[in-house]
Amino acid sequence: MIYGIGTDICDVRRIRESLERHGERFPARVLGENELAVWKARGARWPQRGVSYLATRFSAKEAFSKAIGMGMRMPMTWRNCEIANRPQGHPQAGQPYLVLHGALKEWFESRQLHAHITVTDETDYAASFCVVEHMPHP
User: Which InterPro entries does the UniProt record give (predicted)?
Assistant: First the structure.
């Protein structure tokens, strides 16, 4: 059964401006530990890809927070929610998925929820869509 649906569109130029204004404090506030490492690696090789990565993660977390009906309030925090990608060799290699931490993970699992997330980006925009299902155990 569908628990919630969320979508978000993010202006990549706004993310770039935030990076220019706040430096690494901005991604450190928005990205989880694993995401931060990916962002740094991508940004070091291709600065624009680093900005796009940050924008897609920002957008995906917004979409997820809408799907669970919580917005950005506890236990939903930027850093307790990470968006990872399935590794090479996995049947759905590259597919994004949620990795939750701390109180958010406990809250989510206690309600027997499962999330599906997708992200996309173009030059000026990043967009995300999230469907959260209630999947009670038999």
Answer: 4-PPantetheinyl_Trfase_dom, 4-PPantetheinyl_Trfase_dom_sf, ACPS, Ppantetheine-prot_Trfase_dom
